[in-house]
Please model this.
Amino acid sequence: MALSHKVTEAAVWDALAEIPDPEIPVISLVDLGVVKNVAVEGDRVRIAFTPTFMGCPALETMKRELERAVEAIGGEPEVDVVLDNSWSTDKITAAGREKLREAGFAPPAPRAAGPTTLVQLQSKAFRCPYCNSNETRLENIFGPTPCRSVRYCDGCRQPFEQFKTI
Amino acid sequence: MSERARLLIELADDELILGWRDSEWTGIAPFLEEDVAFSSIAQNEIGHARALYELAARDLGTDADALAFDRAPAEYRCAPLVQLRLVPDWARTIARHVLYETADAIRIAHLKESDDAELAGLAGKIEREEVYHRLHAEMWLDRLGAEERVREAVDELWPLALGILDAELRPALAERLGRPEVEAVERAAPGAEFAELWNEMTMVRRSAPVGAQW
Model:
């Protein structure tokens, strides 16, 4: 296959920024902060990728989508899944957090110095993504996917999903 | 088998089997929130097992699925505590949950300090999720810890909880829970209750045609 142009790092990042998260499609994988590194050598593109939650069933889908996006711009992808401690919800970009909120998911609270406590989760520190009230309470630490808790807003009387801070 | 592989397999087996047992509450927990909670916890634990098996598999020249599903029942190294089938006994389920999560926190914190950067990194990643399991266990202990059935269940399961940890970490568990260190029920070749679970757990894998791609 003759390629008229070279694959650049910037082009790869642009391509990856178009890939929606398979479970929360309003946010891209780049917004989510799971693409740790991109290295281009000729046509070969190496991507280091860190999953969010380890039991996430979308892991394989994400890996395939990353490969496809690289192939679409003429690169030969190699995706390494890195299982280290580098990803936290603080890696979600500001734009990503805003997109989550617009879609009705309360973005994760910033990580505190110490580990999360039950008292914190039961406090009024969490705002409703619909009406912005902080009159919200914890309904369930766990939710429909590993990354979410369920809260209830007493302001607008709606349940909503809160991205867990990890 | 190297010390590192032994550690990874024990930890992975614990997480896989506990995940499987937790998932037995899916659909039949006392109320809907707990259906969701135990199902989600189960999913996390199985996710951890997968990552741990992957690391072990690389050392042992095999793959994660083979370690999880292709071994004979007697080859599993999971602790007796996680093997117990506890549905429909909610009191014992909560007792196990509290004991396991407390022991697991000590084990993970220890691994996080390991000189082995890969192991330490993975332990750190696992710990981020385990925090929520402990909060859930803590919430239930607040609610039910004073109930006689739960207290009895904790007494009953305590020697099994000690068996989760290597001997040098057991005093930390005794201290954290304010209980005397007794003789632990050690890891051994699993019994009949496990064989039944194994049968169910590996059924799809064993019936798949050779070369099937999932």
Remarks:
- Residues 59-72 of chain A form the longest helix (14 residues).
